[in-house]
Amino acid sequence: MNANEISFENLPKAVGHLLSEIAELKLMVSKGQPPVTTPKRTPLGIEDACRIIGKAKPTVYTLVRKRLLPCYKNGKKLYFFEDELLDWIATGKKKTLLEIRTEAESDVRRRNQNIGGR
């Protein structure tokens, strides 16, 4: 629950939320578990981006200019996040022959059903 959402009308809901958070913290402390934190995303420079995706700097600059590669710009410097670069690589997956064959067979079956159903 966000602090901006707290008003007199939803005060009971806010108190309930706080009680559940406190109970969760007590449980973690009693078990000796560290609190779960989301990992911080650290921005990478152009050199790290080149190393991750295996491309030369001019190629990365071209991909950025064509808006094909996810990036952020602050001033004159480009920044990248590793998870976004890995996702970008994953979107370029080539289908295997088995995947192509299975897809073609399902298309043929679907078309035959459509022709027979007319």
UniProtKB/TrEMBL annotation:
Pfam families recorded: HTH_17
Domain Helix-turn-helix span(s) in chain numbering: 44-91
Domain of life of the source: Bacteria
Alphabetical list of InterPro entries matching this protein: HTH_17
Protein name in the entry: Helix-turn-helix domain-containing protein
Species whose genome carries this gene: Gaoshiqia sediminis
